[in-house]
Amino acid sequence: MQSPLPVEHDFSLLKFNTFGIDVVAKAYLSVTDPAMLPQVRLDSRLAALPRLILGGGSNLVLTRDFPGLVLHMTNKGIDVVGRTGHTVSVRAAAGEPWHGLVQWTLAHGFGGLENLSLIPGSVGASPIQNIGAYGVEAGSLIESVRYYDFDTDAVITLDRAGCRFGYRDSVFKHHLRQRAVIIDVTFGLPVVWQAQVQYAELQQELRKMQQDIQQDMPQNTPQKSSLPPASATITPARISEAIVAIRSRKLPDPARIGNAGSFFKNPLVSAAHRQRLLAQWPGLICFAQADGSYKLAAGWLIDQCGWKGQSMGAAGVYDKQALVLINRGHATGTDILRLANAIQEDVARRFGVTLEPEPIIV
Ligand SMILES: Cc1cc2nc3c(=O)[nH]c(=O)nc-3n(C[C@H](O)[C@H](O)[C@H](O)COP(=O)(O)OP(=O)(O)OC[C@H]3O[C@@H](n4cnc5c(N)ncnc54)[C@H](O)[C@@H]3O)c2cc1C
Prior knowledge:
Blueprint: E1 8-12, E2 24-31, H1 36-42, H2 44-47, E3 51-54, E4 60-61, E5 66-73, E6 78-83, E7 87-93, H3 98-107, E8 132-133, E9 136-137, E10 142-149, E11 154-159, H4 160-163, E12 180-190, H5 200-216, H6 222-225, H7 236-250, E13 258-262, E14 268-269, H8 271-280, E15 286-288, E16 294-296, H9 298-304, E17 311-312, E18 315-317, E19 324-327, H10 333-351, E20 360-361
Parallel strand pairs: 2-5, 3-5, 4-20
Antiparallel strand pairs: 1-2, 6-7, 7-12, 8-9, 10-11, 10-12, 13-19, 14-16, 15-16, 17-18, 18-19
Helix pairs in contact: 5-7
The structure holds flavin-adenine dinucleotide.
């Protein structure tokens, strides 16, 4: 006979979402072992409740008390599960912190995830919106995702193609939403590593790090003149260090200022739309896409509307990065959404562009 599930009632989610929004869940279960999930399904009272699957709570806006069951994925474990001539397969449990996984791979000498350093949240959420930063998306390194399907009571493994990764998108945001609980994710890390340093900001940081090393060396040391060029000293660990430095400068630390990172996706526009905008806004920041469309920098659009550093009640726009909405203290989810709506309206009016929120609104 299985032991009863340790469900807690009227559970505060204040410490479980990085926006720091104070709401209560009717029921809460820390899922330390995926074997608990079929048990939830068998319990008619729990199975009847609406479900919220929770990782690190870093991509959520909680707008009200949650009238259902929060399944908080807290299972742990990271292992090498296979090797070929091309890749090392590393499987990590959903409840592992994302940055902890990045550090684990670097400590074991495996490159590939370093550009995704310091993204908050859990491994289990990484496929949901196909997390990405500095030119790399998790989906490009994911071999497979294992999930528990609440509808069919089956554990299913999806390969990369089955996950249908897109820009901040995957199958888990569509027909598998609410029904798939990701248990673990397997990453295929390259045996022959190549640095992904196409972002100018990253190149600059790496150059600065190299100069700092040279300056710290005593004058006239034989090593100083024979130091290898900066490109030869770029390692996965160095890139991770550079990205941690950039992100720590640019983004608010959720432990001090409530936020969910970028609040809006970068919008895509047609070539004709971009041309019209460029005529009026020569400084427009945009990136050509393979399909002929252009991705606009949402932060730049918001900044042009004068929102950077502004507030509406207790919700605000971060003064160093207009794409980040923040909780200035005791903001509710509704306060955050009111500000987000005002920004969306302004950007639509001025640029004819619709901004789509990145976090999940609950
Ligand atoms: C300061 C800051 C910086 C950020 N920078 C980036 C960035 O550079 N790039 C980027 O892509 N994102 C970024 N984010 C957003 C966020 O960190 C990621 O989206 C992250 O993957 C969310 O993980 P989480 O565990 O906190 O998910 P949660 O917020 O807990 O959940 C997010 C969604 O995933 C679902 N979910 C979570 N775990 C599971 C699971 N095991 N099975 C099924 N569904 C699940 C939830 O139901 C919810 O719908 C940033 C956030 C912050 C606060």
